[in-house]
Every structure is written in structure tokens, then in C-alpha cells.
Amino acid sequence: MVYYLPVVPHFLGVDGNSNMESIMKKCRSCKTNESVYTWQPFGPDDSILCFTRPGYHYRGFPTIGICEDCKDNVENGNPGVIFTYKKTGYYALDHQVKETPF
Ligand SMILES: [Zn+2]
Q: What are the phi and psi torsion angles at 33 (to 5°)?
């Protein structure tokens, strides 16, 4: 007697999509769009404008996955980009990241 195990490629999502989107995460700020950039507001650059593609980030520094829209807001110094890191809330404004006052 021969048993055949069902072979399901592990990279396929439940809906059968094999594209990257099925394994991508949501933006850490708006939590709506897909995270397409790795943002490293706490280094290694002095500037908070440190964005890389996922997988190409600088090791040893916190990484925040964010979407295209939120990246634009950070780059333009707009309000509205918030995230939490180690249970502390932060917001980006005018090319600076500060702790939220609550
Ligand atoms: Zn976003």
C-alpha cells in the first residue's frame, strides 16, 4: 500500500496566489496599505529619512515597515505618520521622530 501525501508548495497563500503580496505585511503606520519599505528612523543615518527595500536594511537598528504613502509623508515632513516601537509611541513630523505625549 502506498500513501500519497498532498503536495502543497509552502510559498503559496491560502488563495493560491504565489505573488509576494500574500506574505507581505501591513504598513506599521496606517495599517491599511502593504508595507513596501523598511524605514529606519533611529539610524544608522543622522536623518530619519532612511528607507530601504525589505531585506536590504542596516542591521542592528530598529526597522519599521511602511507603505509608499507614509514614506512620502515622512519625506515631506507631513504629520500623520505614527508607529510604536517597544511599546512606545512615536510620530514623525518635520523630518524628526518624537515620542507621542500619551
Ligand atoms: Zn502606510
A: -80, 165
Taken in order 28, 32, 35, 38, the sign of the CA dihedral is: negative
pLDDT (tens digit, 9 = 90+) per residue, 68-102? 999 999 999 999 999 999 999 999 999 999 999 86
- Distance between Cα 11 and ligand 1 center (Å): 25
Ligand 1 centre to CA of 22 (Å) is 17
Model's pTM, two decimal places? 0.75
Indicate the residue type of 69: D
CA 60 – CA 40 distance, rounded (Å): 10
For residue 61, the 8-state DSSP code is S
For cell 513596501, name the residue: 36
Please list the residues that pair with 91 across neighbouring strands. Answer: 82, 98
